[in-house]
Amino acid sequence: xxxxxxxVGESEAxxxxxxxxxxxxxxxxxxxxxxxxxxxxxxxxxxxxxxSAALGRLYFCDRPDQSIARALEQVFAHGxxxxxxxxxxxxxxxxxxxxxxxxxxxxxxGRAYAVLRLLGVAVRAG
Length: 126
What we know:
By secondary structure, this protein is of the alpha+beta class. Helix content is 29%, strand content 24%. A 5-stranded mixed sheet has the order 5-6-4-3-7. It has a two-stranded antiparallel ribbon with strand order 1-2.
């Protein structure tokens, strides 16, 4: 059977349904973590969050008034160490910052979950 590259995924025969390219099949110079983060960020809506246990990071899409970031910063400021909030960019130049990420340890994660619940933000695990 002949194998074709369809452009999006691979198929075994012409006309077969293609799937998305798995992350491990990307070109060697592609940053897999950035692709993963871009997928997360583009699937979040304002007021949503996702915690990746594998990376130890909380990803969130803030509301227009930046209330989520402000509340998290205030909680961490009272706890001593304030983690660094970074934009999640989906392009090389950093023009499209669609979400924010922050690395959390176990105690910070618990406090972040409590604050997010009080704000009405649902946190998914990913």
